[in-house]
Amino acid sequence: MKMIKNMVMLAALAMAAPLAAETTAAANAAPATVTEIASGVCAGCHSADGNSVIPMNPILAGQQAEYITKQLMDFKATESAPAKRNSPVMSSMVAALSPEDMKQLGAYYAKQKATPSQVAVEDQKLVETGKHIYYGGNIANGVPACASCHGPKGSGIPPRYPAIAGQHAEYTLAQLQLFSAGDRANDKDVMQQVITRMNGYEKRAVSAYISTIR
Ligand code: HEC
Ligand code: HEC
After folding, report:
1. In angstroms, what is the span from residue 57 Cα to ligand 1's centroid?
2. Whether this model's pTM surpasses 0.85
């Protein structure tokens, strides 16, 4: 019995060639398993390829692998510490995931082709205002340009600054509200300082603009 198990493990190791040097846990989490998790567990809300069509659920496709892995870890409470990022939905989703699963899920979504938000924004003035804030910030109330950390095309700067281009406006706005209320602080309060002086209109505007970046 033990011998058969060893042989199966060897086969798994051989298939997962780049991970061969890693631990048994890595060998068990063969790529097929991650695809199974993504299509079996996550797809209902984020779609199988991570291109969520539900505006309150983030698009994950094309996001940086490190950022996705970090968020999954932050959603998970440990025995000694509460979750760094609060989300009742996501904390139950990550409860059964191992660190290796999280790493591989990050890699899985990072290599999917992103389809930007298809939700139409009617208010062009809102989008224009958002564009100004994105590239120039607001000197009057000390809001820095989003482009300085998230890049001129919103594709982010790995590994710390996530891609935000084409994300659903509803999700982005929800995150901005969580950051400013201090309810999301898993980035050492960087984003809270960025948007603390932004008013509601500016938050809606920049979220709308971000959803239109292609
Ligand atoms: C029932 C719906 C649902 C399911 C199923 C679900 N998610 Fe989520 N996910 C959400 C919601 C809602 C959020 C936004 C949470 C928030 O507001 O902070 C989210 C956020 C995330 C984020 C953060 C993205 C970002 O841009 O910061 C990641 C990563 C993620 N989910 C991955 C997964 C993975 C991997 C699975 C499967 C194991 C999964 N989700 C299953 C609803 C879901
Ligand atoms: C000083 C650098 C910096 C600036 C400037 C900045 N951000 Fe961020 N932002 C970050 C970091 C760091 C994170 C990642 C947080 C984490 O690791 O969880 C982030 C995360 C985000 C997220 C969450 C993404 C997701 O998928 O959940 C949104 C939305 C966002 N920023 C929007 C903005 C907007 C809008 C602006 C301009 C008003 C802006 N940021 C300016 C550093 C910055």
Report:
1. 7
2. yes
